[in-house]
Amino acid sequence: MWEIARDSGVLDLNSSYAYVLWGAEFSESSVVVEVEGQVVGFVTGFIRPSEPDTIFVWQVGVDADQRGKGLAARLLHSLLDRLAERGVVRLRTTISPDNEASQRTFGAVARDRGMTLSSEDYLSSELLGEGHEQEDLYTIS
């Protein structure tokens, strides 16, 4: 997962420890897909304690060789299908304004599920610092 995040050019890169820990401690709210023993895609997320009916998706990463094949959307559908059994009915995530690929992916997932995608200002670039672009909050409900 760390290598996919590193090579993506758009995801904030966390330590390899963070990705291993995420897989171990948040496996119920995350998805990893492998091809021939190699991780080629992942979704990391968590159930918000204050909103047990909401999954917050932290990162979606797809290996460069697998991009453009709908893998990210399939991973999100898989996660939402699995979490529906736990009463999760809403997805939230943050997306920077220039990440049109993610905006399209989350829009497609919302349409496929007959749901609505909305967005609002969330985290300003000043708050995030270090030249980080603002992050808007997207909700599928």
Question: How does this model look, in words?
Answer:
- With 141 residues, the chain is α+β, with helices and mostly antiparallel strands.
- It has helices at 2-8, 16-25, 71-84, 100-112, 125-128, and strands at residues 31-35, 38-47, 54-62, 90-95, 117-123, 135-140.
- Strands 1-2-3-4-6-5 form a 6-stranded mixed sheet.
- It comes from Dietzia cinnamea.
- Belongs to the acetyltransferase family. EctA subfamily.
- Keywords: Acyltransferase, Transferase.
Q: Runs with pLDDT <50, length 5+?
A: none
Average pLDDT across residues?
94
Q: So how many helices?
A: 5
- Judged by helices, strands and strand pairing, the structural class is alpha+beta
Percentage of residues in helical conformation: 25-40%
Give the overall shape, derived from the CA principal axes. globular
Main sheet: strand order: 1-2-3-4-6-5
Instruction: Report the radius of gyration as a whole number of Å.
Output: 14 Å
The CATH architecture would be: 3-Layer(aba) Sandwich
What is the level 1 CATH name?
Alpha Beta
Termini Cα gap:
28 Å
Strand content: 25-35%
Largest sheet composition: 6 strands, mixed
Q: What number of domains?
A: 1
Question: What is the CATH superfamily label?
Answer: Gcn5-related N-acetyltransferase (GNAT)
The name of the CATH topology is: Aminopeptidase
Assembly state here?
single chain
- Count of DSSP strands: 6
Can you write the helix and strand succession as a string? HHEEEHEHEHE
